[in-house]
């Protein structure tokens, strides 16, 4: 069995970093102490939708807290809500929740494991499906479960209360979701449930139902949602401001470098896995101006890229970035072509390499000084290649090309 | 198969008598016409609680409409809600709905049949139990059913909306009852559901769900609740103002005679089985003062007593009533005792016959002129019995006694 070696107080300190809230904090500390004294891991619950995941850095905010808990020695239950996924809305008002087949769910679960496995240690993670227990519920069981919660309590949930106030339809089965989610905590006898701030109500329902079933109630830990690369909207696929865990190292690094300095501080708190002390020192230095934001950002981008592609890849991307954008160095893996000596037409070359869509495109690039030859602006459409030379062409911000002249 | 011989218009006229509302009336007429044209009976639903019934005249208001429909040739489904009866409230907040065992339910159902059989022709009545179909529901089936109704719609039910406004707890499973009741209509493919005015919301839910299941929606017919013998409160066992169907003929007749003249008009409309034309004539004559209320009341009391104890019993009670209260006649079955001549103490006699609890009781009766000897007030505690005579003693309003003196 895993030894729990980090003190309860230190565990709590790391859990609190960047967290939105822990409810109730003193209860969690008590649970951590008891778990430490008895060397008995806490049961940690995290629920996921069984629809096909495309996990991005936004999701890792919570996942990394789970990993932290896992590293402390606690028991993670990664719960896939395949039961509720079966509930389509026959009125057709809720197109966002298509009914999934069992095969879909299993496929998605596999994808989850692969993606979540980039953060969690899956060999120590219990992946559970709530259909295993909720699927055994008869209508009567469900009604009895419902008798443990009041309409008033559920209507307090933000989105319900808004819809109710605006006289928008809330279908009755929607009331059942939070209760089923809450029952999952009863079934697992969860000590702590994690989620985004938008999940607070549902997590509290678990607490409520555990009380009702005379269990020790779980604590809850909620994490803020992070903004995406645009710095404004919550990171999400639909806003196209997300950084996927499966991005190429270059894209991941590049996107991370594109965020604002302000957002970077939040990313430091929520996405870095460095100990809190180190992270706090970074943030303080940034605020005091004793470290350059660009340096801090490269360090963070390298760290995060390193998690998902290996530390070496992080370092390499950082070097390449510096080569391109800072030191104008030529990357090792630069695309290289061979040409005979003589004049060439750049527009023809770009078209051939599919770097532009039309000659008009190419002309605009040249006019905008976006084409550089050996790091100098080049304003002409033609270029003279000298025999035996090497020419570095830079097109736009990201594309570089080496021509070896025969 | 029963022939449907009464015209749709005449059926509707009789159904409307005393009814609170028919929704929508034109739809019901259409159904009646179609049923008449095709000689196909309508499916009529009436739901009953499976707790032990003690049916009183208040209940017969709806039952008689069912009987009327049955006499017209329609198909009655007397539905016993044994499914919901299984749902106890584990929070203990709802003590009024104890959980019934299957044996209890079957016993109560038997009692229902016997009591309801005094109004309906049970040989033509389908007694059904909703556990037969709802009992097959899985949790998922139930959730899918719930998705067909909105929270807003259910909160509109009077009692829910009041409780919600007053911030009183409504437990979620309470929301499920109306939906399950509504689903019963879907299962039965009901054309018409009957109930008290307090059931309007639940009956409409059946209509709503039938729409949702793309069935032709049922019409609903609601009947007013009648006041009990006190003339003020709804007839109910708890108010002790009810007339049970199992009362003795004398008690039934006597209680009916005790109601106010105003309430009698309502009873005429709702409890008489005479054709509407006749009833309307009675009520009109009463209003015009061309018939004495006492006469009308005796006629109604005899009619109703006649239903439950045979026509002859109704007539007999009427005669006995007139004998006692109107013509001071001595009833045939008067209690008779033999005494030797001489003075007797009335208090001793009353105690011996268990007519009073104590001598103090007896003295009060005498002081209040409630003791009559041969229909004359008798103010003394002693009475002289003449040899060879017969003495009629009247004690209080109802009790008479004949003493044959030796």
SSE topology sketch:
The structure is a homodimer of 406-residue chains.
Chain A: H1 8-16, E1 21-23, H2 25-38, E2 43-48, H3 57-72, E3 75-80, H4 102-116, E4 125-129, H5 131-134, H6 139-146, H7 151-155, H8 158-165, H9 172-188, E5 192-196, H10 200-212, E6 219-223, H11 249-257, H12 261-271, H13 276-288, H14 293-309, H15 311-326, E7 335-339, E8 342-345, H16 346-352, H17 359-367, E9 371-373, E10 376-377, E11 382-385, E12 390-395, E13 399-405
Parallel strand pairs in A: 2-3, 2-5, 3-4, 5-6, 7-13
Antiparallel strand pairs in A: 1-6, 8-11, 9-10, 9-12, 12-13
Helix pairs in contact in A: 1-2, 9-10, 11-14, 11-15, 12-14, 14-15
- At the fourth level of CATH, the homologous superfamily of the largest domain in chain A is HUPs
The profile of the biggest β sheet of chain A is: 6 strands, mixed
Q: Beta-strand level of the residues of chain A, as a percent range?
A: 15-25%
Mean pLDDT across residues of chain A: 89
Shape of chain A: elongated
Proportion of residues in helical segments of chain A: 40-55%
Strand order of the largest sheet of chain A: 1-6-5-2-3-4
Largest interface (CB < 8 Å): A-B, 39 and 39 residues
- Count of the separate structural domains of chain A: 3
Secondary-structure element string of chain A: HEHEHEHEHHHHHEHEHHHHHEEHHEEEEE
Do you know the CATH topology of the largest domain in chain A? Rossmann fold
- Compute the separation of the termini of chain A in Å: 66 Å
Structural class of chain A: alpha/beta
What is the CA-based Rg of chain A, rounded? 27 Å
Name of the level-1 CATH class of the largest domain in chain A: Alpha Beta
Question: What kind of assembly state do the chains in view correspond to?
Answer: homodimer
Q: Which parts of chain A are unreliable, with pLDDT below 50 for 5 consecutive residues or more?
A: 89-96
Please work out how many helical segments of chain A DSSP would assign. Answer: 17
Number of strands of chain A: 13
CATH architecture verdict of the largest domain in chain A = 3-Layer(aba) Sandwich
